[in-house]
Amino acid sequence: MKILLIRLSAIGDVIHALPVAKATRERYPKAEITWIVEDKAKDLVIGNPNIDNIIILPKKEWKREFKDKKWSTLKKARSFFKELQKHQFDIALDVHGLFKSALTAYLSGAKKRVGPANGREGSTLFYQQKVNLPTEEIHQIDRNLQIAQGIDVQADDVDFDIILLPEEKRRVAQILEELGIEDKRVLVTINPYTSWSSKNWLNQRWAEVADNLIKNLNCEVIFTGGPADRAGVNEIIDLMKERSHNLAGKTNLKELAGIYDRADLFIGCDTGPMHLAAAMGTSVIALFGPTNPKTHGPYGDNNIVLRGDTQCKCCWKRVCQHDKECMKAIGVADLLGAVNLMLRSET
After folding, report:
1. For 266-275, what is each residue's pLDDT tens digit?
2. DSSP 163
3. How far is 300 from 122, CA to CA, in rounded Å?
4. What percent of the chain stands above pLDDT 70?
5. Do 2-151 and 166-345 come out as alike in CATH topology?
6. What is the DSSP letter of 197?
7. How far apart (Å, rounded) are the C-alpha atoms in residues 229 and 208?
8. How far apart are CA 298 and CA 286, in angstroms?
9. Residue 309 CB neighbours (<10 A)
10. How would you classify the pairing of strands 91-94 and 245-246?
C-alpha cells in the first residue's frame, strides 16, 4: 500500500501532524509512506523513521515566479503533479484541510482521498471520504489523529520522532561550547517573537525576566528565533543588565530542536518553536492571548500556560485592535512565579 500524508505548513502545524506518521506506520507496517510538505518545514520530517519518502511542494517558488512568468510557472506545477501521480498512491490523507492541501490530494491521483469534514476554503469538495470531528475544542494533535481514524489509524501514544543526525548533534554541541554554556547551570531558552504581532509580549518585560533568571536563579539564557527576529532580540538584550545569548537566525530547525532538547526550560508565546520544544520533551511555559491554548497550547502535562484574563482574549486577530490588553495582562511576576514553580518541580 502507498500512503500520501499531507500537511504542508506551517512549522507548528507540521509538528502537530507528526504523530500521524507514527500511528500510520504502526497500523500499516509494510506500507510505503510519503509526506508532502513545503520547504520551510521540511527539516522536521527529514530523518523521521516512519516516513519513506519526502516530497517538497515548491509553493513559495511558484508564488514568486507566477507574477512575471505565469505560463512557465503553470507548466512547472503541471509537471510536478504528473511526477507525483507516478507514485500511484492508494490513499491520500489530508490533515491540513485547506484548498491547497485538498487540491494536492486530488492532483496526486490517489485512489482514495480522505480529509476533515469541517475543512475550509472548499477543501471538502476534493475528498471522497470526510471525517467528522468532535464539536468540542480539542488540541490540534488530537484533531489530526481523529482525521487519521478515517484510514483506520489509531494512536495509543503520541510520538513526534524528530531525529537529529550525528552531525546535527555535533553542531548543537559546538554551538553551546562556543557560547560558553556551562552544564552545571540551568539552561533556559526564550523565544520572544511570533509571526503575529498580537501574540508578542513586551521587550522590557522579557529583559526583566531574563535578568532575573540569570542574577537570582543562576540560569544561562539563550534567546532563539528566526532571522527576522534577530534585531528584536538584540533590542531586548540591550535592555538587560546581565549577559545572555542571541541565537535568533543562527540555527536550522533540527539544530534548534537540539538546543531545546539540551535546555531545562523553554519560555515563549504561541509559535512554532514553542511546539518544537514541547515535542522534544522540554518543559514549556507559554504566554497566550489572542489564540486558544486548548487547541494550540503546548502538548503534554509538563507545561504551564499563562493567560491574561481579559474579555478580548482568544480573538484570533493577527494585529491587535485593543493595545494588546490580553498580553499586557500577563505580568513579569506571573512569569517568574511560573518559572520558580517549574524549576522546583524538576529538582
Report:
1. 999 999 999 9
2. P
3. 32
4. 99
5. yes
6. G
7. 19
8. 7
9. 8
10. unpaired
Query: Domain-by-domain residue ranges, the chain?
Result: 2-151, 166-345
Measured between alpha carbons, how far is 53 from 246 in angstroms, rounded to an integer? Answer: 35
- The predicted structure's pLDDT at residue 156: 86
Residue for grid cell 492532483: 107
Q: For the domain bounded by 166-345, which CATH number is listed?
A: 3.40.50.2000
At residue 142, φ and ψ (nearest 5 deg) are -65, -35
Return d(Cα 160, Cα 16) in angstroms, integer.
Answer: 8
CA neighbor of 236 nearest in space, from 204, 265, 259, 260: 204
2-151 classified as CATH 3.40.50.170: no
Output DSSP code: residue 229.
Answer: G
Nearest alpha carbon to residue 175 among 233, 273, 268, 256: 256
Distance (Å) of CA 204 to CA 78, 94, 195, 210: 50, 42, 19, 10
Cell numbers placing 108: 496526486
Average pLDDT across the chain, whole number: 95
How many angstroms separate the CA atoms of 155 and 310, rounded? Answer: 36
Asked, as a colleague might, if the bond just before 10 is cis with ω within 30 of 0, I would say yes
291, 269 Cβ separation under 8 angstroms: no
Give Dmax (Cα) for the chain. 62
Task: Show the CA angle centred on residue 273, arms to residues 269 and 278, nearest 5°.
Answer: 90
Residue 289 has pLDDT above 80, yes or no: yes
Edge to edge, the sheet with strand 53-57 lists 53-57, 32-38, 2-6, 91-94, 112-116, 129-131
- Give the separation between CA 150 and CA 89, rounded to whole angstroms: 16
Under a CB-based contact definition with an 8 Å cutoff, are residues 259 and 246 in contact? no
**Rounded-to-integer distance, Cα 176 and Cα 141, Å:** 31
Helix, strand, or coil (residue 284) = strand
Cis amide bond preceding 279, omega within 30: no
| Contact between 215 and 242 (Cβ < 8 Å) | yes
Pull the grid cell for residue 124.
471538502
Of 160, 158, 93, the C-alpha closest to 128 is: 93
Label the pairing between strands 112-116 and 91-94: parallel
Q: Which of 29, 31, 320, 18 is nearest to 198 (CA)?
A: 320
